[in-house]
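hiii so my PI (J.) wants the whole complex modelled not just the main chain, which honestly fair. so below is everything: two entries, each one labled with what it is. i double checked the lines twice but i was tired so who knows lol
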Amino acid sequence: MSDYNFAYLDEQTKRMIRRAILKGLAIPGYQVPFASREMPMPYGWGTGGVQVSAAVLMPDDVFKVIDQGADDTTNAVSIRKFFERTAEVAVTEATTEATVIQTRHRIPETPLTEGQVLVYQVPIPEPLRFLEPRETETRKMHSLEEYGLMHVKLYEDIARHGQIATSYAYPVKVEGRYVMDPSPIPKFDNPKMEMAAIQLFGAGREQRIYALPPYTKVVSLDFEDYPFEASKPDKACDLCGAEHSYLDEVITDDQGGRMFVCSDTDYCASRRAAGHRGALAAEDAA
Amino acid sequence: MYVAVKGGERAIENAHDWLAEERRGDPDVGELSLAQIREQLKLAVTRVMAEGSLYDPDLAALAIKQARGDLIEAIFLMRAYRTTLPRIGASLPVDTEEMICDRRISATFKDLPGGQVLGPTFDYTHRLLDFKLAAEGELPEAATSEARPEPVPHVTSFLDAEGLIQQERATDDVPRDITREPMAYPTDRSTRLQVLTRGDEGFILGLAYSTQRGYARNHAFVGELRIGTVPVEMEIPELGFAIEIGEVELTECESVNQFAGSKTEPPQFTRGYGLVMGAAERKAIAMALVDRALRWEELGEDNLGAPAQDEEFVLSHCDNIQATGFLEHIKLPHYVDFQAELELVRKLRSEAEANIATQEAAE
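here's the output for the full assembly
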């Protein structure tokens, strides 16, 4: 792939994206428009994250890609291969070894550290989009800090269901200013967003980049009498026994049989390597 | 018995190999050459160039072959390729007045300078399957004549001379480049036209049709439709003057629409404009109608709430590469968000059932 520039994009484009990233870091939670390029993978399949990764990757970086928390889901494999080919960077599945992690729908269970960059793929960057479809309106609402509509929506949830019925892409307020869409991560992951690593969000089709510098204050929206709750299935991982990791439910037969396993495959594998065992791990260990 | 979801990499490779095999089809049947696609599926090539926004018939033919005839997939290949090309500069605006027309018709005047030229059109063919084409070896031949020497002025220029049609003001503003700047609403007409010209033919056609059926009707006549080649010129800094670097085929449609007038301005016709790369008259006409519908504000019309009048709606949904990507991404795994929903629904249901049980017990 020597016909292409390092990490695929030309340097001018990377510069444009880096400027948008820097602006995003300077105004945490603010959606910065950028001239997203057509990528050799479809819009909606992580082109925003891929462009952000392409702009931040350096030859010495160690790159990890996860989708649904797993390194081996098909699209994660495809994106990892893309950068192996176009940037020839080292890749890893270990969260602790990676310097740049591109993710879709999850934040790794292992806490990230200073110097790491977490790149999110974002489908719809606008947290107000499903309350107001017009970009002209939502930009105005952000600039006027007019978030009443969002609180009304959360209130209506409580009135109808007895609780806030948003389970993923749960809106957050950043540094007391911008309401931000955390991308479709489960709300279980929301508290992790106050972290030591840099978080960058890329929405290719929607042409937006936003960012959270390390240790930014990120508050999930709630009410005093209905506080935010980072929920997950009330089970332990059947492979590694972890009780505080986010779990996938796997259907094992047609008799209603199911098991729960960590969605973060690296976390689960390292726990098992360290000797932890879950309820159904016997045959796995064999 | 948990089957780990490993092996994604291997599965992808195998899928690609199978796809390549399917692409070739039955090996006993001769392989399509790019020249065959370029010459005999020209309108497919044209559409791939127009919506891929890259004028290169050979590459478009390759894209069609690689995409197994899926034109949106082929358009995608072209778009992904064009982003990697260096931007050397911009050509001068092409002058469609100078077009060497293969086809030029006006629905508003019976005859006019430059004449009505039907060209190679489907228009008056009877749509009967021609079984002769199923047999091989036909080599049709059409009559030829000398090209008409006279200039072919734009039809709207005649109306313009009489002040009967609203004037387009020329500006020296550098138009925005939608491939280099993010969209921002409200936008301007040149930006809208850029988006429309590479927008999905089916989407633009449907919107144009909706205006004809009364959703912001603007009563369009095809003032003129022309298809032909124009030279492309570029200013070379080292030379200090413009030279011709090639020619492109274009389709241009100018619609003449219902008049507008006020107390201060006498009634005038208005216009819509469509310009598309290659021979693409359905798209060019549809584009002109949608362009006209989007001009409601500038022309002092009412917003009737019709889809074709809504700039943000039209422009943010007409690109088939964006649309197909986002539509098809729902095939990707969503276990994590689905799991979150599953937990929530179970919780809501158990609470609701508990409530019903308490109520029944109370009764």
